[in-house]
Queue: 3 jobs
Job 1
Amino acid sequence: MQHVLKRNRNLHAAGEGLISLVSIRNGGPELNFTETLPTEISVKIFGELDVRSLCHASLTCKRWNVIIEGSDNLWRSHCLDTLAVCHREVDGDRSNGLSWKVTLVRNYQKSCVKRRWLKGKYSNIRCAEDLPQNNMCDLDVETWGEILEAELER
């Protein structure tokens, strides 16, 4: 039986930068790269995805979900990015024994909102009615203090 590897450049569902390998057997079914490569290599490929793409990829099929959900290191690097914005929250979750993924899920939206505030995206907001409801989440008093300091410096 002959195996031919080809590159599939349709990156729409898997995220940019990911090249999926497809193994085709003569007259046989197509296998995705996670079925043909060692798990460690699949984890490295998934490690190139951003958080949103990683979450979407975990919904693609059972095999991808098992690999993505089972690799705490995939979530660790993204969680460390969140740590740069939400120090107290991430440190607290990790000291409470939560996994990298749970810590990331608990703090990701908060870090995105906080990052936008600190960059000045919401500097033109004058009242609560001007807040974009879909992009907001609860922030603690210390975070609001940091945001206020950043706004006063502008």
Job 2
Amino acid sequence: MKLTFWGACRQVTGSMFHLELEDGYTLLIDCGMDMENAQEPQPHYPGSTFPFDASRVNTVLLTHAHIDHSGKIPNLLREDFEGQVYCTPPTLALAELLLKDSASIHAKKLKTYHKNKYKSGKKKVEGNPAEWYVDKHVNDSLRQFQGVDFNRKIKITPQLYATFIPTGHLLGAANILLEVEENGTWKKLLFSGDIGRNHYPLLSNPQTPPQVDYLICESTYGNRQHKSTDQSEEELEKVIQQACVETPGRLIIPAFSVGRTQAILYTLNKLYLQNRLPFIKIFADSPMAYQSNRIYERYASFLNPESQAFKEQHQSLFNFDNLSYIEKTKDSRALSGYNAPCIIISASGMLEGGRIQHHIKSNINNPNCTILMVGYVAEGTFGHDLLHKLKSLKVGSKEIPIAATIRQTDVFSGHGDLQDLLSFVGQQSPGTLQKLFLVHGEERSIQDFQQTLSEKGYQQIEVPERGQSFEL
């Protein structure tokens, strides 16, 4: 069989792994959108937005719903993919939400693109119009999704079986175990997806995977230790006290609507019930977050035992008296005129789009505002620049100095840190594992992780480049 890496190579987004078996049967493990190098030209199969013939892909296996793992599935359907997309039931529900949001963004881009196409002097819309899909394409693709329960071995062909293993990180997220027979020999491959953390709010701990022959492992935090998730309540309480009580200001938290926002709202709910939260308004400014909350509530049986008990006792994981959901854009913008201390949680987490941008622009010059970054921000994004190098922000024709306090915490990061990754890889015997591929990490993180693993006896390590193939 041949494994080709078409995404998440020496970078964090765009997961896409192309596996062709000896009999010609072809799978994609994840089909994600590249959020980091979207402007760079990529090698394409003639007439395709993919570097391969999409119509020859037989099956897609999806580790989880995040758009950098699922975001190009509708493009497959547009290019005559006719197979099934297998994932867990919560992943299916969240993928529908995320893909429809992506389609909405694409529809706006297409409208602007066609409006300005023949006008001189107009700013070009970023991205490749050939890759933009709309709601119809999402609906078409969803008809080919099929939900699969965790730890249920499914027969894809007589020589190919797949099992989805719980890994935390996000509701429904999985490692994917493949068992493949070729020439009378069975081989096992494990695709990590994104590895979660122990004791993360709401989610179950990652399950121990079996011994395999080939491991494809993410490396997002391959050189970094996080603060313990056990500190999430204390960490958030401390920041709120400093940002909203000691200085009666506002706390703005950029957070992805699916996953991160649920962890934060659940933690705030627990603080509220323990009388540890000041009586200030909390605004969840994201319609998608509200819909995600409903999916988390619906699939509560997939959450950890503590969360299930909490829901049974309090009826809701997220809703409490201080919390208001903001649905309309005009109400979101009106928050700029709310002068009392408050907390605003809005998307997106890397500040690359969404309502968070106008909150940042409205408050960047406010010395009584704290902006708390709570997750990974990729290089080249507005969020990364704000954290590391921006001294001022251009709003319209004005250059506004940054007076707000910029803070960061990793306590809510959904990605496992170095210790979590070592624990995951450590389930594999160095003497039995034939090859270990490191993906989904920036180059420095991967290099450091590779060095650490080498010192622990793992020698057959590959760091693939985009488009590189390996015979297994």
Job 3
Amino acid sequence: MTVELALLATPKAVPELRHLLQGYDVDVRLCATELLTNVIDHLGEGTPVTVRVTPTATGHTRVEVTDPDPRSLPVLRAATATDESGRGLALV
């Protein structure tokens, strides 16, 4: 069963999303909240997003977070051991 949630990307929405996805394992919740946090950090607080969690035919779970900005593409960064950010997309 696909779960689809429309929400605003705010710091308060991160733990709320984690709670709404409590039926999923920790990896799914982590991916969804990392993607939501990336929207907050890179597009700004209050950006409307859609979160979709979908089981696949192969037994995996697909996590999608979409936003309205067609110009903003994700960029994978190479974080060092001492960097405090830059790992979100690599985790996903």
